[in-house]
Amino acid sequence: MATMEAKLMHALQYAGYGGGPAGLKHVEVPIPTPKNDEVLLKLEAATINPIDWKVQKGLLRPFLPRKFPYIPATDVAGEVVDVGQGVQKFKPGDKVVAFLTQGNGGGFAEFATASESLTVTRPPEVSAAEGAGLPVAGLTAHQCVTEAAGVKLDGTGPQKNILVTAASGGVGTYAVQLAKLGNTHVTATCGARNIEFIKSLGADEVLDYKSPEGAALNSPSGRKYDAVIHCTTGIPWSTFEPNLSPNGKVIDITPSPTALLTFALKKLTFSKKQLVPLIMNAKAENLDYLVRLVKEGKLKTVIDSKYPLSKAEEAWGKSIDGHATGKIILEP
Q1: Is 274 exposed, middle or buried (0-12, 13-18, 19+ CB in 10 A)?
Q2: Sorting pLDDT into bands at 50, 70 and 90, what band is 4?
């Protein structure tokens, strides 16, 4: 497919740390060529995760991005248009969902290359936008619920009391739904405007995080939490601790230096109550499982808003603002 390589595509990139939405520049760059184990995708949808603009801010320097200029966004859905010589699972015309990894990025563009090992088939029942929402947020929620909290999604095992903080965000909306597939009682916190919506996703009780009970994380039914899926920042251990069951744990998806210190202290003192920092480990089989759940109607991608690639800066700003309900989708 040599003709593709000579062609240009529209993309957004940034050339250095900082700058926020204004740091994103519209450019014409060559369509990438897939390596041996990669597929080339014509993108139909991409989504923004907070990690994307945190990388731009420089919070992971000097590790990420690997080099400038950098095309951000990792979570995409699209159609395979070319494959590397070693690719066996996919062929041109296949509809897929892929995770591009933070090291490579590439989602804010018309085309992107994805590793075959982090690409899964997207059935016609799952829209491109629904699929693109899944990789970072869905996989993080899945790992929190199944591995860290130990919930069995087939509904077996003893009932667990789960708290999801910031339940109306990207990870939170998936975490509530996935937790409820197991034998759980789910308490959630969110802003007042989203309380009924989070109940509609299956939460058993929902707290306004600005109310006294919500700020204290007190379960309205007096339950102690076996696991907290902590999707926000700024809540000290002293607030969590009295609300935890004897072996309760706080699973922190955005651990701060203070949280990491708490994690170390709890380990050193052999405390039964633990703080667990969670780093998402992307696995294709888990992404495939989530796509199947969406197909079967057991999981939904909550879409906050959709933007064309030409207005990606607005979408970037909305994500930084931090009040999106669910996922912000870009459509090239």
Answers
A1: middle
A2: low
Which pair of structure tokens corresponds to residue 310?
């030409």
Question: In this prediction, what percent of the chain has a pLDDT beyond 70?
Answer: 98
Number of residues that this document lists for the chain: 332
CB within 8 Å of 67: residues ≥ 6 apart? none
Do residues 200 and 180 touch, judged by C-beta distance below 8 A?
no
Specify the DSSP class assigned to residue 54. H
Terminal C-alpha separation, the chain? 22
Residues 6+ apart with CB under 8 A from 1: 40, 81, 82
Q: Whole-angstrom Cα distance, residue 294 to residue 124?
A: 11
Q: Are 141 and 229 in contact (CB under 8 A)?
A: yes
Judge contact between 114 and 76, C-beta under 8 A. yes
DSSP labels for 243-281? Answer: GEEEEEEEEESS--HHHHHHHHHHHHTT-SSEEEE----
pLDDT at residue 1 is higher than 50: no
Vertex 247: Cα angle to 241 and 248 (nearest 5): 50
Q: Which amino acid is present at 330?
A: L
With CA atoms as reference, report the closest residue to 144 among 173, 115, 114, 118. Answer: 173
Place of tokens 């000579």: 6
Q: Say whether 286 sits in a helix, a strand or coil.
A: helix
- 241: tokens are 């601790």
Q: In b/e form, how buried is each residue of 169-186, taking b as 16+ CB within 10 angstroms?
A: bbbbbbbbbbbbbbbbbb
Alpha helical stretches, state H, 134-241: 139-142, 170-181, 195-200, 212-216, 237-240
Collapsing DSSP to helix, strand or coil, 185 comes out as strand
For all residues of the chain together, what is the average pLDDT?
94
